């Protein structure tokens, strides 16, 4: 009898009382609610800070873009500066979408007496360079009293020189790289490698020439001749811009338009440039307006991030679709 009583008592001792069980459950619910509220507050703070950060950068980008315009209105007589640094492509400081608005601001400002382009570029797109050259020609007609000068930094070759040739005068450093008046279209052919690996190219097209310069198919004489004719045409456009821009100053030789490039000192001898100088010496000694106002459009951080993301997506799409060849001034 006593053994059964002892066994019953020990079992009851192992089970919590009703009051303890309710208290523990309540405590767990309270702690879970507190943790959820803390997590909610943390996410709320995160989103608020993110919004404030984006708002700050948007305002910074806006004022950064319009900063030059507001300052130039109070500076009076000055030399306008626009920098082209890097490849002449659809993105970056060498794109027509960036350079042309800067040119319009610089010419339209009543205080600017001349426009100086500081170029440091190995070349790039003939389309972008051509659009910039056409806009320079238009603005020179609209503002005949405002000359355009180019100051070459490290390099002004191919598409960079395409733009420079439209200026009234070109100033270089004696060690600058200048020239490379030519056009190229490059790519690769993998047909030999594919044959060795036993890989078969299966290309379906609607249109006899739709597979033009496909790197995985044999190159036809017809396509090669067509590409060469197109390059020659763009080359002649380049030559015409140089001859028109440089005029009688150009001491033309068989090598002038061969795609070679030269030092700044040699470029002056050949008539590809007019003399030696920097932005400062040009503003002081040529323009006679020492105050320099930079009209280069500088993108804000949000714009750069969004463009970078777009460029990455676009590059991924291009890689997915396969390689393509295009003329390049380089």
From TrEMBL:
It comes from the Bacteria. InterPro entries: ClpP/crotonase-like_dom_sf, Peptidase_S49, S49_SppA_C. Keywords: Hydrolase, Membrane, Protease, Serine protease, Transmembrane, Transmembrane helix. Coiled coil: none annotated. The chain crosses the membrane at residues 45-63. Pfam families: Peptidase_S49. SUPFAM superfamilies: ClpP/crotonase (SSF52096). Residues 145-286 form the Peptidase S49 domain. Belongs to the peptidase S49 family. PANTHER family: PEPTIDASE S49 (PTHR42987), PROTEINASE (PTHR42987:SF8). This is S49 family peptidase. It comes from Massilia aquatica. The lineage of its organism: Bacteria, Pseudomonadati, Pseudomonadota, Betaproteobacteria, Burkholderiales.
């Amino acid at each position: 009898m006593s053994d059964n009583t002892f066994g019953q008592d020990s079992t009851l001792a192992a089970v919590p009382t009703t009051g303890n069980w309710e208290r523990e459950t309540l405590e767990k619910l309270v702690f879970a609610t507190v943790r959820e509220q803390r997590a909610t507050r943390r996410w709320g703070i995160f989103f608020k800070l993110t919004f404030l950060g984006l708002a700050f950068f948007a305002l910074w980008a806006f004022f950064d873009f319009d900063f030059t315009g507001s300052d130039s209105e109070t500076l009076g007589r000055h030399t306008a500066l626009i920098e082209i640094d890097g490849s002449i492509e659809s993105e970056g400081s060498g794109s027509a979408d960036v350079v042309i608005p800067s040119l319009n601001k610089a010419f339209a400002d009543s205080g600017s007496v001349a426009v100086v382009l500081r170029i440091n570029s190995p070349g790039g797109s003939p389309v972008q360079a051509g659009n910039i050259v056409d806009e320079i020609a238009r603005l020179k007609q609209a503002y005949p009293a405002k000359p355009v000068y180019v100051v070459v930094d490290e390099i002004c070759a191919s598409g960079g020189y395409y733009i420079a040739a439209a200026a009234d005068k070109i100033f270089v450093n004696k060690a600058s790289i200048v020239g490379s008046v030519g056009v190229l279209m490059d790519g690769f052919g993998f047909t030999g490698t594919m044959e060795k690996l036993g890989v078969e190219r299966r290309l379906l097209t609607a249109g006899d020439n739709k597979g033009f310069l496909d790197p995985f198919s044999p190159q036809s004489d017809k396509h090669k001749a067509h590409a060469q004719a197109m390059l020659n045409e763009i080359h002649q456009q380049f030559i015409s811009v140089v001859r028109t821009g440089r005029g009688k100053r150009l001491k033309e030789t068989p090598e002038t338009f061969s795609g070679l490039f030269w030092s700044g000192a040699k470029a002056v001898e050949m008539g590809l440039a007019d003399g030696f100088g920097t932005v400062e010496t040009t503003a002081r000694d040529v323009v006679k307006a020492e105050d320099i106002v930079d009209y280069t459009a500088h993108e804000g951080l949000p714009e750069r991030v969004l463009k970078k993301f777009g460029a990455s997506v676009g590059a991924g799409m291009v890689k997915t679709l396969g390689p393509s060849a295009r003329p390049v001034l380089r």
